[in-house]
């Protein structure tokens, strides 16, 4: 188990984290074969008997590197209906410590899936709004990039790495204009996706995003595997994962008709991940709100939703985290990548 | 009872119980005559079953493609006691007929001392029982041959790794088919057939080689040799599978929260994303089929830098390692 420096410990040796993060090993990690992933409703982190649920929040912008402890907390889903009505300003604050939140009523309560590395069909949904072409990322050495350039480069790493993990993964590309449109159908040929990314059409000035059109398109074009046999053991022939890359700091996500989304999301073999690139958060933009909306799409609690602003390294890091296989990866709130110094390492 | 007949026959998918055990049916237009294809001793024999639509209580007639085979009807009890009400009536008849057919072929061997010797020595001096062996002699006007010996090897497959597929991979079995081109030939050809799960566990059909049949040799020596070979292979496969699984499990228990993917079928590889001093990188750990003799190969890959259009990566395979360490110990040391 990872132990961080300076963490207080309880009498039984379990660390006390000031952020009340779950430090219990998820049961699935210790029995790889027979294990299953429990899709739990978010209010699951028990520490000292308190049930707390942790909303995902965006990281406070920090040039010198992210504060790892603060960055991801699960959104509680009190809101199911998506309107473009603004969330009340006081409803969620970024620095809020643990709030008691109602648990999500998920139709996927307690579905167990086999922890197998079956092939993935990954749909890269790339925002084509012109904001993607505005320089907003800067490195410490002074280099500047547009989100689109960085995303393309990060995607190239993603594609190569993912293919190395399993040659049977397939990728498709969808462009998000006013409506979503397929650019490349599923292929294992990573180069062809990369050249489609290199050759793409220009971005366009866009306002809010019509999520319905995207989910309609996907629901229409991508069949999901049927549930057959004993679904707790039998691996599906593939799973479908959306990699939603969104770059608007002011364009809200409109989602009036959720029928297609519900149909897709009702399958245990469908996953929704997102990478949100944006301007640094300020009163002049709506980044936090948009991020919260994105998190709301994670109704099953199985998604990885990341965001990055200004810091190119962080974008690469987040995209790398998205490599993890949805059936084998820990919940987002459980992920921990940091290796400690040798001096710190003691055997568990 | 036309429908009933079809229903009865569908229950015969296991007619040939010992070996591969499935038969297929084809109906000819009238609906009360059909052919049954039965796998036997490496061949498929075709029998035609003739029932009478107008009097279903009458037991069926049979046409055997092998015209020499003509059992005495009185000997076939289930035909004598034909009861159309019993859903297994046809199954029972076929089973009995198959027994007679087997005896028929056994008798054919008696005319050839060498083959007869092979057969009886297998029965008498090995652990194989009669129900594990089927013999078949192809006969033409001029000669007899090839002669097939189909032998089911009683290997213990109980521990082999699971094979998760949608289609039921079926029972585990290994079957040896030995062909004698003619009764006294020395060019005897053996072939080994493995059931899907066993083949999968061995890593594919190319991965097991059985020795050629020694000229001048006999089944009595050869068959037990193949059996031992198989049994050893099974044991070895199970052992190294367990070692791989143990190592992957150990890695997961140390680093499960950083996992990207791992091979949940054969446990041959696992990958992680790690962060070291704000620097992220990917680690691929790959196990060769010869693990644990061969150390796992560690490949580090950058997520920021490229070389030759691919992410930059470095392989490390020379590090302190011993095959004798247990899984958890290996994981700790690699850490």
TrEMBL record, chain A:
Signal peptide positions (record): none
Location within or outside the cell: Cytoplasm; Nucleus
GO cellular component: BRCA1-A complex; BRISC complex; cytoplasm; nuclear body
Annotated Basic and acidic residues bias: 90-107
Protein origin, superkingdom: Eukaryota
Transmembrane segments: none
Assigned keywords, A-Z: Cell cycle, Cell division, Chromatin regulator, Cytoplasm, DNA damage, DNA repair, Mitosis, Nucleus, Ubl conjugation pathway
One GO BP annotation of this record: double-strand break repair
Region of interest: Disordered: 90-112
UniProt family annotation: Belongs to the BABAM1 family.
UniProt protein name: BRISC and BRCA1-A complex member 1
From TrEMBL, chain B:
Domain of life: Eukaryota
Keyword Protein transport: no
Pfam families: BRE (PF06113)
Keyword terms of this UniProt record: Apoptosis, Cell cycle, Cell division, Chromatin regulator, Cytoplasm, DNA damage, DNA repair, Mitosis, Nucleus, Repeat, Ubl conjugation pathway
Any one biological process term the GO annotation gives: cell division
InterPro entries associated with the record: BRE
Signal peptide feature range: none
GO cellular component, one term: cytoplasm
Localisation: Cytoplasm; Nucleus
One Gene Ontology term of the molecular function aspect: polyubiquitin modification-dependent protein binding
Subunit structure comment from the entry: Component of the ARISC complex. Component of the BRCA1-A complex. Component of the BRISC complex. Binds polyubiquitin.
Family under the similarity heading: Belongs to the BABAM2 family.
Swiss-Prot/TrEMBL domain comment: Contains 2 ubiquitin-conjugating enzyme family-like (UEV-like) regions. These regions lack the critical Cys residues required for ubiquitination but retain the ability to bind ubiquitin.
Biological role: May play a role in homeostasis or cellular differentiation in cells of neural, epithelial and germline origins. May also act as a death receptor-associated anti-apoptotic protein, which inhibits the mitochondrial apoptotic pathway.
Protein name: BRISC and BRCA1-A complex member 2
């Amino acid at each position: 188990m990872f132990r961080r420096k300076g963490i207080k410990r309880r009498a039984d040796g379990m660390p006390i984290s000031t952020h009340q993060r779950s430090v219990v090993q998820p049961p699935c990690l210790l029995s790889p074969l027979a294990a299953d992933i429990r899709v739990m409703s978010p209010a699951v982190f028990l520490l000292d008997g308190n049930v707390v649920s942790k909303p995902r929040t965006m990281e406070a912008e920090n040039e010198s590197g992210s504060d790892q402890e603060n960055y991801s907390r699960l959104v509680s889903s009190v809101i199911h209906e998506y309107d473009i009505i603004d969330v009340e300003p006081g409803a969620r604050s970024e620095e809020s410590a643990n709030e008691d939140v109602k648990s999500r009523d998920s139709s996927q309560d307690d579905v167990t899936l086999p922890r197998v590395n079956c092939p993935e069909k990954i749909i890269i949904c790339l925002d084509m709004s012109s904001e993607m072409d505005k320089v907003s990322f800067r490195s410490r050495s002074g280099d500047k990039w547009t989100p689109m350039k960085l995303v393309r480069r990060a995607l190239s790493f993603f594609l190569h790495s993912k293919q190395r993990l399993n040659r049977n993964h397939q990728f498709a590309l969808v462009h998000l204009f006013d409506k979503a449109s397929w650019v490349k159908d599923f292929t294992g040929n990573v180069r062809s996706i990369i050249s489609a990314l290199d050759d793409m059409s220009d971005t366009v000035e866009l306002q809010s995003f019509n999520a319905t059109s995207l989910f309609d398109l996907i629901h229409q074009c991508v069949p999901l595997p049927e549930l057959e046999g004993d679904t707790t053991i039998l691996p599906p022939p593939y799973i479908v994962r959306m990699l939603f890359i969104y770059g608007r700091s002011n364009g809200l996500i409109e989602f009036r008709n959720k029928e297609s989304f519900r149909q897709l999301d009702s399958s245990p073999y469908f996953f929704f991940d997102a990478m949100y690139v944006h301007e640094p958060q300020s009163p002049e933009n709506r980044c936090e709100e948009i991020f919260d909306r994105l998190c709301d799409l994670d109704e099953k609690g199985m998604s990885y939703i990341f965001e990055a602003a200004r810091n190119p390294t962080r974008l690469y890091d987040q995209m790398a985290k998205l490599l993890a296989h949805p059936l084998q990866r820990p919940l987002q709130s459980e992920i921990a990548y940091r290796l400690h110094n040798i001096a710190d390492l003691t055997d568990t | 009872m036309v429908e009933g007949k079809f229903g009865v026959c569908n229950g015969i998918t296991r007619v040939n119980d010992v070996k591969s055990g499935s038969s297929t049916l084809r109906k000819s237009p009238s609906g009360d005559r059909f052919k049954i294809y039965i796998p036997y001793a490496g061949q498929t024999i075709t029998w035609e079953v003739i029932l009478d639509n107008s009097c279903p209580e009458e037991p069926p007639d049979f046409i055997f493609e092998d015209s020499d085979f003509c059992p005495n009807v009185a000997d076939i009890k289930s035909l004598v006691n034909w009861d159309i009400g019993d859903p297994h009536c046809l199954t029972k008849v076929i089973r009995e007929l198959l027994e007679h057919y087997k005896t028929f072929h056994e008798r054919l061997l008696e005319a050839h001392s060498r083959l007869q010797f092979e057969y009886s020595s297998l029965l008498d001096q090995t652990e194989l029982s009669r129900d594990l062996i089927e013999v078949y002699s192809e006969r033409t006007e001029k000669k007899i041959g090839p002669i097939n010996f189909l032998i089911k090897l009683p290997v213990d497959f109980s521990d082999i790794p699971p094979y998760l597929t949608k289609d039921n991979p079926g029972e585990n079995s290994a079957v040896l088919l030995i062909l004698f081109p003619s009764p006294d030939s020395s060019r005897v050809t053996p072939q080994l057939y493995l059931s899907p799960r066993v083949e999968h566990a061995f890593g594919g059909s190319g991965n097991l080689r059985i020795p050629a049949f020694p000229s001048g040799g006999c089944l009595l020596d050869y068959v037990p040799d193949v059996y031992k070979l198989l049994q050893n292979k099974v044991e070895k496969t199970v052992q190294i599978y367990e070692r791989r699984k143990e190592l992957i499990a150990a890695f997961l228990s140390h680093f499960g929260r950083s996992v990207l993917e791992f091979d949940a079928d054969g446990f041959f590889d696992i990958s992680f994303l790690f962060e070291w001093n704000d620097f992220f990188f990917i680690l691929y750990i790959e196990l060769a089929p010869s693990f644990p003799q061969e150390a796992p190969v560690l490949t580090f890959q950058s997520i920021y830098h490229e070389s030759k259009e691919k992410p930059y990566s470095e392989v490390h395979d020379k590090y302190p390692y011993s095959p004798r360490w247990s899984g958890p110990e290996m994981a700790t040391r690699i850490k």
